[in-house]
Write a structure and sequence with these properties.
The chain is α+β, with helices and mostly antiparallel strands. The strands form eight sheets. Strands 1, 2, 3, 4, 5 and 6 form a six-stranded antiparallel sheet that branches. It has a four-stranded antiparallel sheet with strand order 7-34-33-32. A four-stranded antiparallel sheet has the order 8-9-10-11, with no helix packed on it. A hairpin with a 3-residue loop joins strand 33 and strand 34. It is elongated and about 120 Å long.
Length: 534
């Protein structure tokens, strides 16, 4: 921040009644780097110089004679004393609002000013941008913000280059932030030269929002919103604008995420809608009535019904153009979209004797959770089982796959994180005290819902040795009934329960509310007593 200078350059004239009258000034001097520095040591009260000079003032010229160029101190002193009735001085006057320095302190300060170096400027002039960036990166975000006001060069380099690189690094390493960057259209200013960006202050705002959002997830309460549905909520799926809810009465309801109004409701199955997923064109439903259906989003007409399972369709997942459904008949069925609305069966997978309660898949692996507590790993597209991962002591209730990591929830009141390539358990989360009914995994965050109506949240990271460590754990008492479905993204947690409520815990909305309150505050603070700006 800017600081008031301790010296003020000025010119002045001193006049005396006659040459016999003394100026009333005692001088002292020192020599630095072959330059003579002349200071006022004291001023006699009532003398001609008393009103204009004070101890500590440095005299730089006497009647246009530059003191620094005079080699003999006595000559400079005599110039002052031998002046006529009027003497003209250029001085560096002591700022009366600052601390008064002794001569030794003035000398040390002069040495410091003479030897001061802008390391950032020097590094940039030598094309050592990476060194300057590393040094600045050692500061936290608040200190970096303070550095912006040092000078224009620091503002341009830190506010543009450093902040841009920091935003890009954070987004590259966090899948949740990648989704947020796409949602907020940040990518238009990222991964391009800063010379093509009209206003580089956007990077400071991006970082402020990211750190505020992280702080919200870490320790602050989200903005909670409640939706009351007509029946038990069995499944939910959301995008940036709408929430699709599958209900126990066979209906599907759609709610607007912004103003929380019901947009549409339609009976889709004879029994409860146990699972739901969607893309931009269609939404898919699986039901206790053993059927899997495909619906158009524009007019809600049923495109196709698949009666392939012989028992309840317990879970389904849609990724790109492929779909997987899991049934209590022990079968997993894979489907492929051949057009926007046409879908065909690809294959059946049934190599286990128990009920399939959860399923998820990626480009290389298919993960299945069973009622006998095992977790199966299958290769795609071959469909061969490579691992049967043991560890849970109760039926698996939820599975979510992310790259080579899978999160599972179970009736044994635990959540586990697995490496599907190795078929090993990386971490067991034992904080829930009731059956875990659902799980969601996004970026480096895990959430689950239990039978006590609680939502558990874990923020995880990997140590240098590759072990999973929990950086933060939080619990919210959200529902009065079992939490049976849950969704997680970079901004919010959405949970559905048998108490007929869908609860949206929105961290992004709360963060933006705080940002807007800060920006709407008046720039000038007013004094209540003086009734003027502070």
């Amino acid at each position: 921040p800017w600081v008031r200078s301790d010296r003020l350059d000025m010119s002045l004239c001193i006049q005396r009644a006659s040459i016999r009258e003394e100026w009333g000034v005692t001088l002292e001097y020192t020599v630095q780097k072959d330059k003579l520095l002349l200071f006022v040591k004291s001023v006699l009260v009532g003398s001609p110089a008393y009103k204009v000079l004070q101890a500590g003032d440095r005299i730089t010229t006497i009647n246009d004679w530059e003191i620094e160029k005079i080699s003999e101190p006595e000559v400079a002193e005599n110039l002052f004393r031998a002046a006529g009735n009027i003497v003209t001085l250029d001085i560096e006057k002591v700022n009366r609002y600052q601390k008064q320095f002794s001569l030794d302190e003035k000398i040390e300060k002069y040495r410091y000013e003479a030897s001061k170096l802008d390391f950032l400027e020097e590094l940039l002039m030598r094309n050592m941008d990476h060194c300057a960036e590393y040094i600045v990166s050692l500061l936290d975000f608040e200190d970096q913000l303070n550095c912006l006001v040092v000078c224009q060069l620091w503002n341009e380099f830190i506010g543009g280059h450093v902040f841009k690189r920091k935003v890009e690094a954070l987004i590259d390493n966090d899948e949740g932030l990648q989704e947020l960057a796409e949602q907020e259209q940040w990518n238009t200013g990222l991964y391009i030269p800063t010379t093509e960006v009209l206003d580089t202050s956007v990077y400071k705002k991006m970082l402020a929002k990211i750190f505020l959002l992280k702080d919200m997830w870490r320790c602050r309460e989200p903005k909670a919103k409640r939706l009351f549905c007509d029946s038990f909520v069995l499944s939910i799926k959301t995008d940036d604008e709408r929430i699709y809810c599958g209900l126990n009465n066979g209906c599907v309801q759609v709610w607007d995420l912004a103003y929380l109004g019901k947009l549409r409701e339609q009976e889709c199955h004879d029994k409860g809608v146990k699972c739901i997923d969607m893309n931009t064109k269609v939404f898919l439903t699986g039901s206790y009535d053993t059927t899997f259906k495909v619906w158009r989003k524009d007019d809600w007409s049923c495109v196709k019904t698949f009666p392939c399972h012989t028992d309840s369709v317990w879970d389904l997942r849609l990724h790109e153009n492929s779909v997987a459904t899991a049934g209590l008949d022990g079968t997993v069925i894979m489907y492929d979209f051949v057009s926007d609305y046409e879908i065909n069966v690809r294959c059946y997978i049934q190599a286990h004797g128990d009920l399939v309660s959860a399923v998820d898949f990626g480009p290389d692996y298919l993960i299945t959770g069973y009622e006998d507590a095992n977790v199966g790993v299958w290769t795609l597209p071959a469909g061969q089982m490579i691992h049967s991962m043991e560890g849970h002591n109760g039926g698996v209730t939820g599975v979510q796959l992310q790259m080579n990591l899978a999160a599972t929830s179970s009736y044994d009141a635990t959540v586990r994180l697995w490496d599907v390539e190795l078929g090993t358990c990386l971490k067991e989360f034992k904080e829930p005290i009731s059956f875990c009914r659902c799980v969601a995994f996004h970026g480096m965050r895990l959430v689950c819902g239990d039978f006590g109506g609680n939502v558990h949240f874990w923020d995880i990271s990997f140590s240098t040795t590759g072990k999973v460590q929990v950086d933060n754990h939080r619990t919210w008492e959200c529902h009065q009934g079992h939490v049976v479905c849950i969704q997680l993204n970079a901004c919010r947690i959405i949970s559905g329960s048998r108490d007929r409520y869908v609860i949206v815990n929105d961290f992004w909305a709360k963060a933006m509310d705080q940002m807007n309150r800060r920006e709407s505050k008046p720039a000038v603070k007013m004094s209540r007593f003086l009734r003027r700006p502070l």
